[in-house]
Amino acid sequence: MNLNFARARFLTSAPRASLAPPDAGAEVAFAGRSNAGKSSALNVITQQRALARTSKTPGRTREINFFALDDRIRLVDLPGYGYAKVPHALKTQWQQQLVEYLENRVSLRGLVLLMDCRHPLTEFDQQMLRWCAAAGLPVHVLLTKADKLKRGPASASLLAVRRQLGEFHSQATVQLFSALKKLGVDEAREVIAGWLSA
Fold first, then answer.
1. pTM of the model as a whole
2. Domain 5-197, what architecture?
3. Whose CA is closest to 50, among 65, 37, 40, 58?
4. Residues 81, 187: Cα–Cα separation, whole Å
5. Average pLDDT value for the chain
6. 55-101 pLDDT, tens per residue?
7. Any idea what DSSP says for residue 74?
8. 50: how many CB neighbours lie within 10 A of its CB?
9. How far apart are CA 42 and CA 78, in angstroms?
10. Rg (CA), the chain
11. What ranges do the domains of the chain cover?
12. Which of 150, 149, 62, 163 is nearest to 141 (CA)?
């Protein structure tokens, strides 16, 4: 299936999973720690500068944002988890949204999990991988901000994560990614298109 990612357009924001668009067709969600680079990845994958709002302030994505590629295929930007500087009650609310969406969304075909390649496999990342494994949900890990490391350390990070992934999700795959340098964009698109066409 040759998807035209550049056709992506903003569909809606849902403060709760229950207010998401109709659960039909197919969608791939992007998840990760606050400031891991979800919005930047979405923008570069769709070849659009401002499809998803980016910010240097962790925790700007506070709702579940849906982007339509056509009338039955969507990309989804989930609220970041982790250290966002927001009240504890709001963090708890985000976690509940994530669980509700991931547990109940029938059209969800896979999860793109973003991790800063300098700080991969945080406790939250491990929890997410274990949860997806239990749910039988495919995961593809993007080790983001690979431009921040030289080639040797970046490759070492990739190998280390690849070795450890099996402990949490035996079917998960991983790659290096840089939105700034457009590294790994085609590989990421190929995985996403494969899920959406299955």
1. 0.91
2. 3-Layer(aba) Sandwich (3.40)
3. 40
4. 25
5. 89
6. 444 444 568 899 999 999 999 998 887 655 556 666 666 677 777 88
7. E
8. 9
9. 11
10. 15
11. 5-197
12. 163
